[in-house]
Design a protein that fits this description.
alpha/beta; 11 strands; 4-stranded antiparallel β-sheet; binds pyridoxal-5'-phosphate; 13 helices; 37% helix
Length: 347
């Protein structure tokens, strides 16, 4: 197990930072008259600032995920914890991160915004994680390693045995982005949080839970790491509408479970249909709600699909994904439209 020294990892200015103290931080008990935040007394409940630590919502998520509420950070999408990790731990112009490639573009964008160098660690040609490539890219200024499992856009889960040595040996933080984990739930790293003090797991309500519009992302990590994120976030980072809507949609997970079942079934059906199309060369194994599909003329097919009002993601210029389109699994009706359009192109 890797022991980490958070004080050494943190940027000096963040270590010294005295965070903004809101009216709700200074008094969070119950009372009948609140005259401490210069709010308008009318227009309940929208006149009041929301709970800065989202306690009710965290307690619900804690039940669903089986993770202590003190180890949960909630943000405006996963984008927020990604950005906060850079701002807390990476000294602009000096530190760097290692990110597997190809993967989600936001790690590099957040790094660029924060003036942090990205050292890419290329996946093997079968899209498996090369542990040595990742560890060899690390130098004394590497603060974060970004892994994504199941990975976007390659769709595969990363093997436990490939990730473990990284968690064991790296003295900075290892971020595992599990945006698609609801489609392969047994592979989650959440249960390893107590074993690895340097592990940060990212999840989101944007995919399987069907709530991309309310912008709600989660980071799970040791309490000390969560405290750092809380210290530097905007005081009221999650608005009341998001918190209320999430509480409503999280009453149970029956809908989510049914959606995941339907999408997984449809993914396999779609795969079969696609394989019968002659210019489909390869469909990569998927542990997520999308398929990476290698075709003969990716650019041409991409544009012809647009002409037919069907939009997929052209990934043909992404490393190791030459000639590939990323296709999200839709409803049965949407998938039929896709297949119909593709079949017509062939005629
Ligand atoms: C879609 C996706 C997310 C979700 O981001 P949000 O900001 O939570 O909507 C995160 N990571 C990956 C790899 C994704 O593909």
């Amino acid at each position: 197990m890797s022991q980490i020294d958070l004080n050494k990892l943190l940027r000096a200015n963040i270590k010294q930072l005295k965070p903004y103290s809101s009216a709700r931080d200074e008094f969070s008990g119950t009372a009948s008259v609140f005259l401490d935040a210069n709010e308008n007394p009318y227009n309940e409940p929208y006149n009041r600032y929301p709970d800065p630590l989202q306690r009710e919502l965290k307690s619900r998520i804690s039940q669903i995920k089986g993770v202590d509420a003190a180890k949960i950070f909630l943000g405006n999408g996963s984008d927020e914890p990604i950005d906060l990790l850079f701002r807390a731990f990476c000294e602009p112009g000096k530190d760097n991160i290692v990110a597997m490639e190809p993967s989600y573009g936001m790690y590099t964008v957040a790094a660029d915004i924060n003036n942090i160098k990205v050292k890419p660690a290329l996946l093997n040609s079968d899209y498996s994680l090369n542990t040595d490539t990742v560890l060899n890219a690390v130098d004394e200024h590497t603060k974060l390693i970004f892994l994504c499992s199941p990975n976007n856009p390659t769709a595969n889960l990363l093997k436990k045995e490939a990730i473990e040595p990284i968690l064991d040996r790296f003295k900075g933080l290892v971020i595992i982005d599990e945006a698609y984990i609801d489609f392969a739930p047994e592979a989650t790293w959440l249960k390893q949080l107590d074993k690895y003090p340097n592990l940060v797991v990212l999840q989101t309500f944007s995919k399987a839970w069907g709530m991309a519009a309310i912008r709600l992302g989660m980071a799970f990590a040791a309490t000390e790491i969560i405290q750092v994120l809380n210290k530097i976030k905007y005081p009221y980072n999650l608005n009341i509408l998001t918190q209320q809507k999430a509480m409503e949609l999280l009453k149970d997970d029956v809908k989510k479970t049914n959606w995941v079942d339907a999408i997984l079934k449809e993914r396999e059906r779609l795969k079969g249909e696609l394989l019968s199309i002659p210019y489909v060369e390869q469909i990569y194994p998927s542990d997520a709600n999308f398929l990476l599909v290698k075709v003969k003329d990716a650019d041409g097919i991409y544009h012809k699909l647009i002409d037919n009002s069907v939009i997929v993601r052209n990934r043909s210029r992404v490393k190791l994904c030459q000639g590939s389109l990323r296709i999200t699994v839709g409803t049965p009706e949407e998938n039929i439209k896709l297949i119909t359009a593709l079949t017509a192109l062939n005629a």
